[in-house]
Amino acid sequence: MASRKSSRATGGSPSPGSKRETKHGGGKNGKKEGLSGSSFFTWFMVIALLGVWTSVAVVWFELVDYEEVLAKAKDFRYNLSEVLQGKLGIYDADGDGDFDVEDAKVLLGEEPGGVAKKKPKLKGLKERSVPAQPTSPESEESVQPAENVESERKIADVEVEEEIQSVLHEALHSQPDADSMVDDVGAVESESYEIPALDDYVPDLEERISDPDTPDDSEVMPEDAVEHYAEDRVHEDYSEDQGVESKQTEDDVIIEPEESEKPVKAEDYSNDVQVGKSEKETEQDKTEKAKKKKKPKLLNKFDKTIKAELDAAEKLRKKGKVEEALRAFEALVNQYPQSPRARYGKAQSEDDLAEKMRSNEMLQQAINTYDEVVSLPNVPSDLIKLSLKREADRQQFLGRMRGSLVTLQKLVQLFPSETSFKNDLGVGYLLIGDNSNAKKVYEEVLSLAPNDGFAKVHYGFILKAENKIAESIPYLQEGLESGDPGTDDGRFYFHLGDALQRMGDKEAYKWYELGYQRGHFASVWQRSLYNVKGLKAQPWWTARETGYTELVKSLEKNWKLIRDEGLAVMDKKRSLFLPEDENLREKGDWSQFTLWQQGRKNENACKSVPKTCALLERFPEATGCRRGQIKYSIMHPGTHVWPHTGPTNCRLRMHLGLVIPKEGCRIRCAQEYRDWEEGKVLIFDDSFEHEVWQDAESYRLIFIVDVWHPELTAQQRRTLPAI
User: What Rg value do the Cα atoms of the chain yield, rounded?
Assistant: First the structure.
């Protein structure tokens, strides 16, 4: 029993000593069976503390360059995409050298441009969609899953349509966004356009259009800008910072128009004018849309062989690394001098660098390089179009309108079926004041495309300039209603409304209202087109409000001196007063004698009125106003001046009464009428609609002094282009 108990005690229940041994890691035969709970916790804390201190050390001592890690990860993603493209090359089904959406269509049983045939899903194509890389050319070539191909195809068609529309079919005055043209669209077989004997007709063009690099006098905006076509880039270049001015936008005026500035009819006219094409499209419209959907081709056969190098350089440009991109493209041009795409990339990089540096010299270099592109052999036609179009645009930017016209004529001769280039050529003629040739161009366009809205508004504009008011209205109206690119322009709302007003049609204010709602005018009454944002806007001003009280006091104090010198000029046998020639009169006789214009003194004129000119020399707000004039104005009985507006909100106009009949002379600005008084100054903002009647029995003589808007800064007064 004793031995049994002993054995039970030995084998059944461990002694306290053995329990302690086990607790501390001991085991049978002296072997450790593992860590206890407390030991495990201790080691866990040690490791955790080491990890924390290691992290602190890494951050504190900058042992790891995290930016470099992120950059490598980004490069890895690009490289993976390129490797993937190379691996998929074996699935090239259309023989163009790589795998793209067209190859996917073939593999899925869809005929190019047709409907996909019903086939079982291809094995190995996962159902999970691949995230799109919109800014990376490689992403457009990645594998498309079977169920997503149709939607991807639609998206691609929309993107291509937008690219073509924005680059090849928008008006010349808008800058084409060549960046949106992804270079790998040239993966489809490219058609090259040879330019045989290009030099044969270029000299002929230059003979017909002399002095390509000198801006013409017609580029200066005339007084009141009623019958002249001028782009707001006429005087624009990088020589001065002129970014303060813009076309009218809805928030251009800080102060809301007063009650007197509201239109005659307060109804909302926006729904009365249907802007946009009808639901039924003509066959011509469908044909034009089909053309727009065609992919642009920027690479010829040789450029496809160096596509990877071109893509690498273009990637730098799109990332904004302009200097690096330029060096990369220059290296490609040196290595492959016959590569059109490399040279075009060089031109784009120079163009971008000119913008960054604000350098006219660099921009001229870009213009030269664009021109070099078209002289190379086997240039894809789409690349020729982009190069010449951009070259013409940049020439206009520098004010070289005649040089731009030569470039546009090249485009039309190379692509005679492209009506959009003819439209651009018409604009080119208008910019140098050659309305006759512009009219011929638009007549040709309308004979080929009767519904071309761009041609209609410009043709209507020319007819109105010829004083064919009634004939101009349907062209301007139908052109605006078309909604075509390039038609939604404040000038056309301006001239359509003006033509309707002259015909006595109150529909004019519907178009003015629509122009205002679309951001072209500051208000229905204030319709100037060349404006600086944020300037106080009201039709009538007091001397105190302008801050030019000394000038007003001086004019009113010396009004008889100014009057007598003006009358002496009128009494001369050879009058220096010239008839108003801006087509502002409905009837009557209105002449002017100008002393200052665009901030420039007329020395010969001032010899006739020396005391008046000496008086004005003290007031630079008037003599230095490069957007105004200082002049005598005489109006004879029976004269009516049409409602009109000045070209800019940057000036105020002072009228000093010199010889004023007792009755019959009045002026309206917006909806308020005023009368002149001898020896008194009236001040109004002529960017608001104003109208004049002279129904007295004798002539009316006033002295007009334009001054800078008082809220313009000194910098703005120095740098705003002259008008």
Answer: 37
Q: Regarding predicted confidence, which is higher, 477 or 140?
A: 477
pLDDT of residue 223: 41
- pLDDT over 60 (residue 17): no
Place of tokens 């709602």: 517
Amino acid at 493: Y
Host H or E run for residue 469: helix 469-482
Nearest to 325 by CA among 348, 299, 355: 348
User: Mean pLDDT score of the chain, rounded to an integer?
Assistant: 75
445-461: burial string, b at 16+ Cβ within 10 Å, e else = bbeebebbbbbbbbbbb
Opening angle at CA 456, ends 158 and 528, nearest 5: 95
Contact 380, 297 (CB under 8 A): yes
Distances (CA, A) of 35 to 17, 32, 40: 19, 8, 6
Predicted pLDDT of residue 367: 97
Burial class from Cβ neighbours inside 10 Å (0-12, 13-18, 19+) for residue 159 reads middle
How far is Cα 697 from Cα 707, in angstroms, rounded to an integer? 31
User: Could you tell me if 127 and 145 are in contact, meaning their C-beta atoms sit under 8 angstroms apart?
Assistant: yes
For residue 652, the cross-strand partners are: 707
- Upper half-sphere CA count for residue 51 (Cβ side, 13 Å): 6
Residue 374: HSE in the Cβ half-sphere, 13 Å Cα cutoff: 24
Supply φ then ψ for residue 685, to 5 degrees. Answer: -95, 105
Predicted pLDDT at 18: 41
d(CA 632, CA 626): 18
> What contacts 290, CB < 8 A, 6 or more positions away?
none
CA distance 180 to 414: 24
Q: What are phi and psi of 281, to 5 degrees?
A: -95, 140
DSSP conformational letter for 499 = H
Residue 564: which H helix or E strand, with range? helix 559-571
| SS3 assignment for 143-178 | CCCHHHHHHHHHHHHHHHHHHHHHHHCCCCCCCCCH
Q: What is the pTM of this model?
A: 0.63
Structure tokens given for 270:
């926006």
- Phi, psi dihedral angles at 653 (to 5 degrees): -115, 130
The tokens for 171 are 């008006």
Cα–Cα distance, 163 to 140 (Å, whole number)? 15
What is the average pLDDT across 669-688?
A: 97
Q: 259 or 403: whose pLDDT is higher?
A: 403
Q: Are 706 and 651 in contact (CB under 8 A)?
A: yes
CA 683 to chain CA centroid, Å, is: 35
Whole-angstrom distance, CA of residue 195 vs CA of residue 254: 54
Sign of the four-CA dihedral 384, 385, 386, 387: positive
Which has the closest alpha carbon to 491: 521, 524, 534?
521
Give 228-277 as a DSSP string: ----TTTT-SSSS--TTEES--TTS-SSPPPGGGS-SS-S--TTTS--S-
Least confident of 184-188, 444-448, 536-540: 184-188
Residue 133: pLDDT band with limits 50, 70, 90:
very low
Specify the DSSP class assigned to residue 589. -
User: 592 pairs with which residues across the strands?
Assistant: 578, 633
Q: Give 285's pLDDT tier (boundaries 50, 70, 90).
A: low
